[in-house]
Amino acid sequence: MYSDLAGKVAIVTGASQGIGRGIALRFGQEQMKVVINYHTDTSEAEQLAEEVKAAGGEAIAIQADVSKEAEVKELIMKTVQIFGGLDVLVNNAGIQTTCSSHELSLEDWHKVMDVNLTGAFVGCREALKYMLEHQIKGSIINMSSVHQKIPKPFHAHYASSKGGLKLLTESLALEYAPYGIRVNTIAPGAIATPMNEHILSDPRQKEDVLSLIPMNSIGEPKQIASAAAWLASEEANYVTGVTLFVDGGMTLYPFYLKG
Prior knowledge:
Layout: E1 9-12, H1 18-29, E2 33-38, H2 42-55, E3 58-63, H3 69-83, E4 88-91, H4 106-133, E5 139-143, H5 156-176, E6 182-188, H6 197-200, H7 203-210, H8 221-232, E7 243-246
Parallel strand pairs: 1-2, 1-4, 2-3, 4-5, 5-6, 6-7
Keywords: Oxidoreductase
EC number: 1.1.1.47
Protein name: Glucose 1-dehydrogenase
């Protein structure tokens, strides 16, 4: 636990389930004030807010589509109005679809890019404006994927969005380091979330995934949440512009283990 996080204000986008849910709960345990952003599922988000409160934090659920600039701006504004500030932003909202690249429509390309990359940029921009204006040495965490490094056939739009997020993070980290604002990325591997349920519920597909992970286990949202809590805390106050891979060794060229 990180005592300096108590009372700080955090927004977690796409927080009603999966990794975002895990991060919100961990922030609650850290006694933070947590804005649970969600897109459609009000009941899940409100239930999570109650769980965050039970864990020791404060929480409110706010609906916003992060692919819409005006809604991201309103999300930041409401956060400041309700909790009186903003110290931590976690750009976690993300989507992916599967499609052969030669059949990928521009509409589907934009849909993924608008959420995964443009939405994260707008969130970063608005958080930076607030932090600069109020001289807050805040922390921004962008949720990427091992596929910012590992190519992903049939997911060219998703992999491209995550590769772009890496350089967005590094560019912002360099630009705003003089102001004490840190910008980092977490890149999860195979994590047990609703997004991956269709794969992990199939024994054969799950075994195929496990063969790519040297630690031979599927990750849990709480493991990503631990990384997020550390990056948000003063324990990481000299860390900016990095990608923290939380992947069980998935990016370590595991096929070399076969000799």
